[in-house]
Amino acid sequence: MTRLEIDHLYVPVAGRTILHDIGFTAEGGSLIGLVGPNGAGKSTLAKTIAGLLQPASGTIAVNGVALDTMDRRDAARKIAYLSQGDTVHWPLAVRATVTLGRAPHSGRFGTASPGDRRAVEAALHRADVLSLADRNIQQLSGGERARVLLARALAVEAPILIADEPVGALDPRHALNIIGLLREEAARGALVIAVLHDLALASRFCDRLLVMRDGRLAADGPPHDVLSPAGMEQHYAVAAHHGTHEAERFVIPWRTLNAADRKPNQEGETA
Amino acid sequence: MNRLPAPATSRIGTAPLCLILLGILAGLMLASLTIGYVHIPPGRLVQAAFGMADPATTTIVQQLRMPRMILAALVGASLGGAGAVLQGLLHNPLAEPGTLGITGAASLGAVVALYFGLAATVPMSLPLCAMSGAAIATVILLVVARDSASTLTLILVGTGIGGIAIALTSLAMNLSPNPWAVSEIAMWLLGSVKDRTFSEVWLALPFVIVGLAALLAAAPSLDLLSLGEDTARSMGLNASRLRTMAIAGTSLAVGAGVAVSGSVGFVGLMMPHLVRPLVGQVPSRTVLPSIIGGGALVLASDIVVRLIAIGPELQLGVLTSLLGTPFFLYLVLHLRRQLP
Q1: What is the CATH number of domain B80-336?
Q2: How confident is the model at residue B7 (pLDDT cuts 50, 70, 90)?
Q3: Which of A37, B118, B134, B184 is buried most deeply by CB count within 10 Å?
Q4: Plot region of B191 (φ>0 → left; ψ -120 to 50 → alpha; else → beta)
Q5: Given CB atoms, is B237 within the 8 Å cutoff of chain A?
């Protein structure tokens, strides 16, 4: 089983330390939500795990091997990254776009091997975009494009998938659809870490939540522990509605709390 | 980009496309040797090429038409290849050495070499200065592109670089000691491969070959950039290596081309767009066809300027700009709906 270990991670961006002393361990077969207010450092952490930002100190290790000792392409085969946004710069066909996900596996000038083709078809199938395979990606709807880009990330067949706001701009149906697909990947044994803002989705679908606040890991645990009424107040400065529907628990942010409503020790820690 | 109703599936393969373009290129090379003030039938052409025809024909073919033909193909190949790689690298359909000011900066470098008399004493200084100009412009563009990837910003910065290059070139002409030098620089700036010799071919050829090799080496990595740099890097792309290859390739090929032909505009813009729908819009697959096609396009243009008999022969760069500017405007208007 894949094991991701992060220890004492400090990450600077443009000379300023954004992430402070991040540490956690995660294993395959789980969907972990990375939540927290805007500007807390969620995307920075996602990018650092994906190898896009260089930590100042600390380690990220996959199955005991530190990321910075791995060859670039080796690391790319271990950790797939689904970026925020859905820009594809040229009107490529859907299948060609998904095939790009095989880059960490192919030789520099190599054409797609039968294994690559199988992986691409499997990814198209898993993200339910097989019927769109010959379409121009720029002509798809936002929801369809999100599924295609997820298929691109799945085509890497990495044991770890980092998704930065995969449901950020999607309507409810497509958001449920994408988070369901991430859930399935976790069920297949992958470790999926997703940056999420929708706490109703995060509390329902994630096995575990990591709450980021001011560049630090503020809480780490099962969704309903970290998003308890006290947690919602502490991390988000909001009061929330906690409910149960069809035997599943959910959290809905209800109203903002102003300074007077809050405990004295949490002043000035939003945004 | 072009939102084609039936996109990537309706394409001919890259290899057949390249073969077709090579055939066209070969035909144009032959035509380029045949056509001119003196018509030389293909039979005599072969004899003349090997120095077995009458002295006059041999001189025309060996001294006048062959260098011209080779330079036209080299310049076109450089511009086409650089345009295709720059468009892929910056994922910007308007990118090309001309619109980004690289050609202008290379011209300025060459003018500096001409103006200070370096070119007369050390012939190699002409391509070296032109390539340095191209490299400086490309580096500035890449720094800007890293901070803000907006298509508009990049084109505006390119226009700025081009503007500065033109201003400094004008300054050199303004301060020029005699009218002969001014007219020499002016004619050279219009872009032409007329009256060139093999010494110019040998001057440009090595740099163009190395430059094109770098551009071709950069090509396979361009596809990943379609998904943005973060995603590309997450798949193992060495982005700085790719950028270095692209800058080096563009500077060498375009700089050397400009050094011997002056500025021939818009070939780098047009060629990748002409081949893109034929290769499924895949950025890496546009590079080789754009190199071959660019050579063919400039050769064809150079034949056309010889055929249009109006007073003094049209300069090559004038013709490509006359063709390219409407194309550029069409692209801008066409893209306006899709750009942020």
Answers
A1: 1.10.3470.10
A2: very low
A3: B134
A4: left
A5: yes
Q: What is the DSSP letter of A97?
A: H
Domains of chain A by start residue, with CATH: 3-264 (3.40.50.300)
- Label residue B313 by pLDDT band (50, 70, 90): confident
**Whole-angstrom distance between the N-terminal and C-terminal Cα of chain A?**
37
At residue A88, the 3 state secondary structure works out as: coil
Q: Where are the beta strands (DSSP E) in B131-236?
A: none
DSSP string, A165-222: STTTT--HHHHHHHHHHHHHHHHTT-EEEEE---HHHHHHH-SEEEEEETTEEEEEE-
Distance CA A93, CA B282 (A): 9
- B236 touching chain A per CB within 8 A: yes
For residue B45, the one-letter residue type is: L
B238: nearest CB among A72, A80, A152: A72
Q: Is the pLDDT of residue A156 over 50?
A: yes
d(CA A151, CA A202): 21
Please give the mean pLDDT across all residues of chain B: 86
Please write the tens of the pLDDT for every residue from A119-144: 999 999 999 999 999 999 999 999 99
d(CA B202, CA B70): 10
User: Could you give the C-alpha distances from B233 to A75, A130, A192, B196, B236, in angstroms and in order?
Assistant: 11, 26, 19, 45, 5
Give residue A161's identity as a one-letter amino acid code: L
Lowest mean pLDDT among A45-49, B75-79, B175-179, B238-242: B175-179
A105 pLDDT above the threshold of 50: yes
Between CA A32 and CA A51 the distance in angstroms is 18
Strand partners, B301: none
Higher per-residue pLDDT: B161 or B10 = B161
> Chain B residue closest to A105 (CA)?
B235
